[in-house]
Write a structure and sequence with these properties.
The structure is a homodimer of 559-residue chains. With 559 residues, the first copy, chain A, is of the alpha/beta class. Chain A is 32% helix and 24% strand. The interface between A and B is large, with 66 and 66 residues.
Chain lengths: 559, 559
């Protein structure tokens, strides 16, 4: 573990977060020392039926568990901390995080019953960590949650900088300034490789300041004669602060609705990241008792999530809050790709209730800005750091590609830009970087309590079942003479509505009977043959009749 | 059927197209005369698992079949013509359409084997139809397909104007100008009610001219040193024309790839709606033989549809066309809400192949504009027509609401604006309009060959099956002594991967056995009780162990 062993290579790779949005997990290894940056989760793609969340495959880390010095977390969002309860169960190493981030992590670990057995270490932007041959230091960044940091990892092979998620907000909320000077200083010292956030690499220009949203919110609150409901990401603590600021400016009280919103306001409030005067928060039960123009409801549901507070209000199924005609509802978020229809449906329902709804892309609504930097900010980071090598991270492939083009534009040698998939390694030795061999990587699917017990076969079955349902065919054959003793009975689920399709199912029955008789006349009596033949004959018949391919499950018993 | 019966009411309603995008079908009835405008389909919502397409419930029309004088089609897009093959089977009435529209309809009816038995009547913008007491005339509009018209329906109660889909394009492709003068003239004569397209009612300003796209395409074709692939909607004939224009200007030949693209180019070309010089079109097989900078591939797949031409090319599974590094791929379309992820995945794959991909919202890419008018154009239509009553149509509820606000803004009396759901009628008598009673309406789901045989129960089952799969439990009991003769056997599909979960399934087996023994000791032997108890006990156990709720199907046989 000497700092000077010239044989030691420096390895840099992602186990999650490249070629995808979510489950961020980056690994920096020098010799026998591994430092992990972030440990996030991803929400399932639409073809991952029934899956709750997805985390990275950490086989490489568990295979090298003695080398892992710790996990550094850049900020408290789910795609950076959400995997920890699963990862720490298999790899109990110290977790390093700033105060708010640690507060949110501890909330999670408590729920998972892991608070006692895990080691969590508080850092701040001035901390310096000796992690074997790797020295970690930090710099403050702007993002949609306070206490976000970038990470500077000094190794004997050179310095690696990981930006975390960032934008450059020159007028940040609650004085959460980025430390431009320190970033410049790191760049000046010389950086071997930069790993930088690509989320908005497709967007020209600068992302507007979060403060702009505050101005707009105050204006809307002021104009509204009735209640104002604001839905936003619970994780956007700056946005939450601005809702309180606007409420104060317009003499309204704030009710917090939705589990994750209550959770974040509680933790961020207790740790001093929200500046909320005594008495500003009211209980949801009090909303109906107060004058309508004195109330703000701050809630979850900005993505149209089916069980969220705003969705329930929109459907008039919320137990405590009704939307009344004339109320103003602000959706202070842009739909994440895939959620557009759900958000649209919520807006429709709110309009039907007579609400005045403010929604749509931030550029139109004025009540949302991104937490990620656009092209000019990404170029600013590249200019400050002036890395020799560049790895765009945190984005779908097309975003990484666009970010790579920005890197070229600011003068990084195209041969020194690496666009990686998860598991692709970049190795540095003697100042030279090249693509190395692959390490194990992939998606671990979590369904209920099951971690990794749902694989491709199960997903394929769910897909099939979801399209055309299933038919179970039950027949009892006689052992003696091979005649049909009972059945065939056909049970249909998700295929056709039985009452409407008696003729079809009767005919299906006849097909099964005929097929079995024919097989038995031909003395075919191996189990597998009988089943395959029934399946094929029935499948063919049903496809001809309906152009559908239900799953067919023949159950043939012998008595 | 007299034109002068003062008892006759005028009824206006939608069977599809309001509160939704798709399956447009509007009904105008005066006394015993019914005129239908459009007969479209809708693509299924994401919770309609396994459904192929959705059409309106036409019970009202079949119940009143003797009164239906015909179906007028405004233009040849699927959401206006796609329902015809299903509707005409149950309601064989004349279909009126302009030349290109009729060409596209006849293609559909031919495929459905309905060409012989249906009656189709060619109209043009100057046609006047006497449909009982209703007189129909037409006006040319701008839309993303030529030959689009709006409909003017003169009834004894007053004039109803239906815009069809429209924008105002002052520099249209192929001289397809809207007939502003005629629209103005109709307005001058006095219009009782306007039904107008709300698709872009949320968008401020004017939709840019389709011609802008042509300029951009030519520029990109010119800059590209290699092949250019353009994916766009097959139904956008103007866009297709401009691809040919840009190809001519840059001395490239065009290969047409994708079934619906070939279909539209053939029909529109034969009918003279595409201006394509001899020899411009090459076969897909010739692409590889030609100099790369002399070729354009025009294809389907702009929405990332899994089986489309562009998706296959992106995945390197297209039989004839490979994407080579340095090729330019233009996605000349904006993703329809819900398709963003599929399009994103296609762009990623294309980038991975080394293509230069031009994509994103039209305002960024420059290669797409909408075919629907934005707020200023909607106000222009309202100003030209100056209707007494106004019904926003063709849009989700929020779009109808925004359109209603535009109506108010230009001076329509708010009490004379009706936002309707499907089946809501507006009745006019003596110059006064009011909401009338409801008529039957709804979604008819088409799955394969089945029309309407998949209902809520089947969809609920598919949803359940898609989330956690199914367990089939097979047990044989003895008739004599009620002991278990064979089983329980548990078959799992889409629940857990069996090899990984033997312990769980063994335990599940024991639970079933114990439950049955207990019931039999208690002399419970009704079929239904046995099944319910097995289902409950097993469901409880599995939920505790896995937090999943698979469908459980107990099959208990007696021998």
């Amino acid at each position: 573990m000497s700092k000077k062993n010239p044989q030691d290579k420096l390895l840099v790779f992602a186990l999650g977060g490249v070629g995808e949005i979510g489950k961020n997990m980056y690994v920096i290894q020098h010799g026998n020392d591994i430092v992990v940056v972030d440990s996030g989760l991803k929400f399932p793609e639409e073809d991952m039926l029934g899956i709750d969340i997805v985390i990275p495959d950490i086989t490489y880390l568990t295979d090298n568990r003695d080398k892992v010095r710790g996990i550094i977390i850049t900020h408290g969002h789910e795609d950076h901390i959400g995997g920890l309860p699963y990862v720490l169960r298999h790899l109990n190493v110290p977790v390093y995080a700033t105060r708010l981030t640690l507060g949110l992590i501890e909330g999670k670990l408590k729920e998972a019953g892991l608070l006692g057995e895990t080691k969590r270490i508080l850092i701040n932007a001035d901390s310096v960590l000796e992690l074997g041959s790797i020295t970690a230091s930090f710099f403050k960044t702007n993002h949609s949650i306070p206490d976000s940091v970038g990470v500077c990892l000094d190794t004997p092979e050179g310095t690696i900088v990981h930006t975390g998620d960032f934008k450059f907000d020159f007028t940040p909320v609650n004085d959460q300034y980025a430390d431009l000077q320190r970033i410049a200083e790191i760049g000046k010292r010389g950086v071997l490789a930069l790993l930088s956030d690509s989320t908005n690499a497709e967007r020209p220009g600068m992302t507007p300041s979060e403060s702009n949203v505050g101005v707009e919110l105050t204006e809307i609150f002021r104009k509204s004669q009735q209640r104002v409901v604001v839905a936003t990401f619970a994780s956007n603590v700056h946005r939450i602060q601005q809702v309180f600021n606007a409420a104060m400016a317009t003499k309204r009280k704030v009710a917090i609705v939705g589990r994750s919103m209550v959770n974040v306001v509680t933790i961020a409030g207790e740790l001093g990241y929200l500046n909320i005067p005594e008495g500003m928060i009211i209980e949801p039960e009090e909303v109906n008792k107060m004058a309508a123009d004195r109330v703000v409801v701050l809630c979850t549901g900005s993505q149209g999530e089916p069980m969220s507070a705003l969705t329930r209000m929109a459907r008039s199924t919320h137990r405590k809050i009704d939307i009344l005609p004339g109320d103003t509802v602000i959706i202070a978020a842009t739909p994440i790709p895939g959620n557009e229809r759900d958000v649209g449906r919520t807006v429709d329902e709110l309009f039907r209730l007579g609400a005045n709804v403010i929604y749509g892309p931030g550029s139109v609504s004025g009540v949302h800005v991104s937490g990620h930097g656009s092209q000019e900010e990404l170029k600013l980071m590249l200019n400050l750091i002036k890395p020799e090598y560049f790895m765009p991270i945190h984005g779908e492939y097309r975003m990484l590609r666009q970010h790579a083009k920005l890197g070229e534009a600011v003068g990084v040698d195209p041969d020194k830009i690496f666009i990686c998939d998860i598991g692709d390694t970049v190795e540095f030795q003697g100042g030279v970087g090249r693509k190395g061999s692959k390490v194990p990587s992939g998606n671990v699917l979590i369904d209920g309590l099951g971690v990794g017990d749902v694989g491709n076969i199960v997903l394929r079955d769910r897909k099939l079942l979801s399209q055309d349902g299933i038919l179970v065919v039950v027949v009892t054959l006689s052992k003696q003479d091979g005649t049909i003793k009972s059945g065939p009975d056909i049970i249909s689920r998700g295929f056709v509505y039985v009452r409407e399709s008696e003729g079809l199912l009767d005919e299906a029955n006849r097909i099964v009977t005929t097929t079995l008789h024919k097989l038995m006349n031909d003395k075919v009596n191996e189990w597998a043959s009988l089943k395959t033949n029934v399946k094929d004959a029935l499948g063919r018949f049903l496809y001809e009749q309906t152009r559908r391919r239900p799953m067919i499950l023949p159950i043939i018993m012998e008595v």
